Amino acid sequence: MARLEFIAPTRRRSPRRGILLIVVQILAVLAALLHGYIFVLESLRFAEPKVYAGTFRVERGDLAAVQPWAFNQGWYNLFLAIGTLVGALLLPTLPDAGWALVLMGCGSMIAAAAVLVATDRRLVKAALIQGTLPISTVVASLTQI
User: Fold this and answer.
1) Which of 9, 18, 102, 135 has the most CB atoms around it within 10 Å of its CB?
2) 82: how many CB neighbours lie within 10 A of its CB?
């Protein structure tokens, strides 16, 4: 079975691969920032009508039941964001740890977006917002194999 390896920092890299690594880092940071923002909406601002009704389409009568779930989901998104952000920062100096964190974080974000759209087709826009940056990060990561 063939083994895929990411470029270690001690190996010579072409300038193009170095630039593409920076692209991966930027995309990963943007995915992390987006999920940090989602944390803010779900855990800190969910009780605001603009957020629960406008963004998440929750009826006021359901707010008390849904808010604890949203609070928990927000923290989940924050933890994914932190892992992805730390991974992006580690890529140049500790590539094995950096790749593990970036790919695990972005992979989880992609999976969550897929579950979102599989659950309710009306949420395609939300899934695209949630999943586009992580998918772009993983695709750009393929340049580093």
Assistant:
1) 102
2) 16
Q: Tell me how far apart the terminal alpha carbons of the chain are, to the nearest angstrom.
A: 16
**By the 8 A CB rule, do 143 and 17 touch?**
yes
Read off the tokens for 71. Answer: 């609070």
Would you give per-residue pLDDT tens digits along the chain (145 residues)?
556 565 555 555 567 778 999 999 999 999 999 999 999 999 999 999 999 999 999 999 999 999 999 999 999 999 999 999 999 999 999 999 999 999 999 999 999 999 999 999 999 999 999 999 999 999 999 999 7
How many other CB atoms sit within 10 Å of the CB of residue 133?
Answer: 23
Closest CA to 106 of 46, 41, 26: 26
Q: Comparing C-alpha atoms, which of 70, 76, 79 is closest to residue 46?
A: 70
How many alpha carbons fall within 13 Å on the CB side of residue 12? 1
